[in-house]
Backbone:
């Protein structure tokens, strides 16, 4: 599959709608595996990395789920193409920095993505819309089992799967969800909720994972360790906490509408005005305004399809996507101009927010708030 064919259509998980938990945008499961009797990538010499890649890549491409997949060595991709894959959460920033000896194999609908010779020999991930960690794990576990028929992984009966980083030792599993939490941010409850999440051993990160800031009120919540626990235990605990955080967010939105509807209408209306008519807008400002527009879609200010439109725009206005769209390298000023043009075009048919709809009965709010995610 050609790169442009892969990127031409939005990923399945980008068009999944709100589901039961409107605050949860995506669920992701990642498994780390290393080959037995092969030096781990960080210590391997170039020929050893090449040998491991020659062993893994055919096995991955032969998987039934990866039929017709995009498969390329990173050294054959441009810097913009690699950054587009990072922006779509299909490869990591660290993997994008690698060249010869590393590859990416991505299922055509972008629900599976496998990084070869990243920090570990294999980083496999499955992404699903909404809160579907169990479904994502089930699908990835089947893929992992199929791979074990042709590849021998480094495994210790006591320690489990051996990984480069000790925090991945055991199951090699990292489970995470991307949440949209504007209600908690606007009501100044975000610090309290995230502190409670940290206290029970879960990690909170920004839009692109470790070391990145939260933009557009988007947060990733994930497990921090895997040793000594089963995959099912880790996922059940994470799903429970994420459900509670999503309920907090929904209750925060409801309370904001009850206590200060003018403030909510003002922020959503201002965001709409800027996005509809701005001719220059940087990435951070655009993401923050799209966050409020997405909030308006969930509260009834706009048609519910606005949520899906915002999710698509959140990806398409990223710097590398803009450069790919333009077919050339862009200066920051050019990116800001083209970004505004794309947003204006996509929102052209979106009518002004309907404040009367903010009090309708079509809101999926929880009536039983729980102030502490650890109390489940």
Residues:
């Amino acid at each position: 599959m050609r790169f442009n064919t892969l990127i031409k259509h939005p990923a399945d998980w980008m068009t999944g709608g709100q589901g039961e938990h409107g605050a949860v945008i995506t669920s992701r499961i990642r498994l780390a595996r290393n080959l037995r009797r092969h030096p781990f990538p960080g210590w391997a010499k170039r020929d050893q990395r090449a040998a491991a890649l020659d062993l893994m890549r055919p096995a991955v491409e032969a998987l039934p789920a990866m039929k017709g997949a995009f498969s390329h060595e990173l050294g054959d991709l441009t810097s913009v193409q690699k950054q587009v894959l990072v922006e779509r959460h299909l490869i990591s920033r660290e993997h994008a920095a690698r060249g010869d000896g590393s590859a990416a194999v991505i299922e055509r609908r972008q629900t599976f993505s496998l990084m070869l010779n990243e920090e570990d020999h294999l980083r496999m991930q499955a992404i699903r819309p909404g809160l579907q960690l169990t479904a994502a794990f089930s699908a990835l576990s089947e893929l992992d089992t199929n791979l074990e028929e042709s590849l021998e992984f480094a495994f210790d009966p006591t320690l489990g799967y051996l990984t480069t980083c000790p925090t991945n030792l055991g199951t090699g599993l990292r489970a995470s969800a991307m949440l949209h939490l504007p209600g908690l941010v606007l009501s100044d409850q975000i610090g309290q909720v995230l502190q409670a999440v940290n206290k029970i051993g879960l990690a909170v990160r920004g839009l692109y994972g470790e070391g990145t800031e939260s933009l557009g009120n988007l947060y990733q919540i994930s497990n921090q360790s895997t040793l000594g626990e089963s995959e099912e235990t880790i996922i059940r605990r994470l799903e429970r906490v994420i459900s509670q955080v999503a309920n907090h967010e929904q209750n925060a939105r409801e309370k904001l509408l009850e206590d200060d509807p003018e403030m909510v209408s003002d922020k959503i209306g201002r965001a709409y005005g800027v996005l509809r008519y701005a001719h220059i807008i940087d990435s951070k400002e655009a993401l923050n305004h799209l966050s409020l527009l997405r909030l308006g879609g969930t509260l009834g200010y706009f048609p519910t399809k606005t949520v899906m439109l915002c999710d698509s725009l959140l990806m398409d206005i990223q710097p590398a996507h803009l450069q790919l769209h333009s077919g050339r390298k862009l200066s920051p000023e050019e990116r800001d101009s083209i970004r505004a043009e794309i947003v204006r075009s996509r929102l052209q048919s979106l009518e002004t927010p309907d404040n009367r709809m903010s009090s309708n009965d079509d809101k999926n709010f929880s009536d039983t708030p729980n102030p502490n995610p650890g109390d489940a």
Summary: Residues 259-359 form one domain. The first strand starts at residue 24 and ends at 33.
